[in-house]
Structure formats: C-alpha cells, structure tokens
Amino acid sequence: MLRLPFGLGLIALLAASPVAAEIARIKQSSGIALVERGGQRLKSAPGLQLLAGDKLVTGKDGRMSLTFVDNTRFAVGPNSQVSLSEFQYDRTRQKGTFLTRVDRGSLAVVSGKIAKSNRDAMKVRTPNTLLGVRGTKFIVAVPE
Amino acid sequence: MMRLRPSLGLALLLGGCATSSLVLLPDDEGSQGSVAVLEAGGKPGQAVIDAGNSRTKLGTSSPVTRPLGENGLKKQEAALLTSLPPAARSFLLYFDQGTVTLTPESVLALNAIKAEIAVRSGPEVQVTGHTDTIGSEADNDRLSAQRAEEVLNWLASQGIDRSIMSAVGRGERELKEPTVDNFASAANRRVEIIVR
C-alpha cells in the first residue's frame, strides 16, 4: 500500500515525456503552407504538432502562425523558409535552448521562457547573421 | 585581376543577403528587450541592438540602427504582426485540504477556462497539479496528479478534446508560498492551467 502511491506518482510524471517531443503547435495557416519533416511534407493546419528539425515553408500567399511550449510565438510570412533547427526545453526548470534559421522570407517573433532562461539561449540565424535574442518582439526579413 | 574575382564572386553571393533586416519592437507589456549580433558575415560580432521601434540592416558586425520614423512599419510587416498568435494565458484553481475538491471560488472560474480554450485556434492545454506540504512526498505526488486529472476530466466532460490536453503532478516540489514541511497552505493547493 505504501508503494502504490509512489508508483502512481511516477506514472503521472512519466506521462509528460511523450508530450515533450512536441515543441510547438500550428495555430493558423493560410495559402500554401507546409511543414517539411525528414522526407515528408505535411500540410499546415491548426493543431498540427511540430517537432525539432521541422522546416516551415510558405508560398507567395502563404502564412502560418505557431506557439511553442515555452510560450514563444512565431508568425511566418509569405515566400518563407524557416527551420526550427534546435529546440530543447525543460518544462520544470523553464530553461532551454532554441535555434531558428530564417533562410528566406519573414518571421515575427515574440520570445518566451527560453529567451529569459539564459543569455542568448535563443538564437536566430539568417544567411549572414547570427542573432542572440534577449527577451523581445521583433521581425527578421531575408529577401530572396 | 586574380584577386578581384573572388571578391566579386563573394559580393554577388552576399548580394541577396545584404538586405536582411531586423525590426525591433517593444514587447506587449511595453518593456524593451534587445537583440545581439553574435556573428556577422562569418565573423564574431558584439553589437547589441536595443532601440525599440527601430530598423537595422544586418550583415556587418556593427550594423546601423535607425528609428522606424514617420513611415513606421511596412505594410507586410504590420500584416505579419497581426498574424501572431495570442499570448498564452495561465489560470490557477485552488483545492480543499487533502482533496480533489475545488474551492467554491475556483468552481466559478472553470467556465472562463473552458471559454478561453474554445475561442482559440489549434489550442493546447497544459494542466499541472500541486499540493501543500501536509503529508508525505509520495502521497502528494499522487494527490497533485489526481488534482490535475480532475480538472482535465472536467474539461473533457465539457467537450474539450483530450488529445489537446496534458496533465502532470508536481507534488510539493514547486510551492507558490514557501513553507516548512507539514504546513497547510491554501495558496499551494492548486492546479495551474496554461492555455496556448
């Protein structure tokens, strides 16, 4: 009897692990908007769960918006290629690291808990610049 | 002549990227954060951009930042900001000592949580249960998980899809109000619901 509550507690704690694979969720999308994952191309739609390594691709009328598990928010503009290259987040300690690549197009960002957790824990790379995000709202644009 | 070519090639290569730009804005609470240029054109950078409502052309280690000025944001920039998702919202519910019974005030708050989930597109709900320090750690792990499950089950009974929700218990590990062990605290007997 004494061991039963402990076991149950452990199950409850472990239950969080499969969810940890999800790093963000699509909130809105319109026009041509795809998620490239490995060799797959998934159509972007509200509720789609995103994983580290996913690449967001929009066509000339395409848009997508998403919220990450650390509360970071993204809006991806038309004609864009944005890769969620690295994302690690410890929900309990609210710390992590986050690297996004903007190869083309435009990205609006409202940073979340990762950017607050450590200096330059959140980075954004464009073809010519590496930015360290120190808790803020901004737009990065990379014309073709 | 021999030396011109590589630099010309490089200039052409970088030509497309040279116009990369950053628009820095105050955050929604009105405070101003900053962005550091850690690398530019393959070289380490040290510049910190911290002027709100400014535009910076990226690509050099000491980029020039200018105020947005009268013209303000470009049309496509304003449209991009409009399409940002709403900020995550957090709710707290409180429980009677040692139980999964919500306090009367918290029962009244349930509908607001349901409504917040309902208005969102592609929502995600994260439910985290906590206890005070009365009882053993193991018992509190179990109780905190049960509290979180109780809230999740209620939301599910109201038609919220279980697949968008997750529940975990953190026992007495994250006290809202720091206390000694075996101390009854109404503030610590809580479930936090984050709606994204």
Structural write-up:
The complex is a heterodimer of chains A (144) and B (196). With 144 residues, chain A is α+β, with helices and mostly antiparallel strands. Chain A has one domain (20-142). Chain A has three helices and twelve strands; from the N terminus they run H-H-E-E-E-E-E-E-E-E-E-H-E-E-E. In chain A, strands 1, 2, 3, 4, 5, 6, 7, 8, 9, 10, 11 and 12 form a twelve-stranded mixed beta sheet that branches. Chain A starts with a helix and ends with a strand. In chain B, helix 4 links the parallel strand 8 and strand 9. Classes of the chains: A alpha+beta (144), B alpha+beta (196). Chains A and B meet through helix 1, strand 1, strand 6, strand 7 and strand 9 of A and strand 1, strand 2, helix 2, helix 4 and strand 9 of B. Strand 12 (137-142) of chain A pairs antiparallel with strand 1 of chain B.
Basic shape of chain B: elongated
- Mean pLDDT over the full residue set of chain B: 91
Structural class of chain B: alpha+beta
Q: How many β-strand stretches of chain A?
A: 12
Report the CATH topology name of the largest domain in chain B.
60s Ribosomal Protein L30, Chain: A
Summarize the structure in short:
The complex is a heterodimer of chains A (144) and B (196). With 144 residues, chain A is an alpha+beta fold.
Spell out the blueprint of helices and strands.
The complex is a heterodimer of chains A (144) and B (196).
Chain A: H1 3-14, H2 16-20, E1 24-30, E2 33-37, E3 40-43, E4 49-50, E5 55-58, E6 63-68, E7 73-76, E8 81-90, E9 95-110, H3 113-117, E10 122-125, E11 129-134, E12 137-142
Parallel strand pairs in A: 9-10
Antiparallel strand pairs in A: 1-4, 1-6, 2-3, 2-5, 5-8, 6-7, 7-9, 8-9, 9-12, 10-11
Chain B: H1 4-15, E1 21-25, E2 34-40, E3 43-44, E4 48-49, E5 54-57, E6 65-67, H2 75-82, E7 89-94, H3 104-118, E8 125-129, H4 137-157, E9 165-169, E10 190-195
Parallel strand pairs in B: 8-9
Antiparallel strand pairs in B: 1-5, 2-3, 2-4, 5-6, 7-10, 8-10
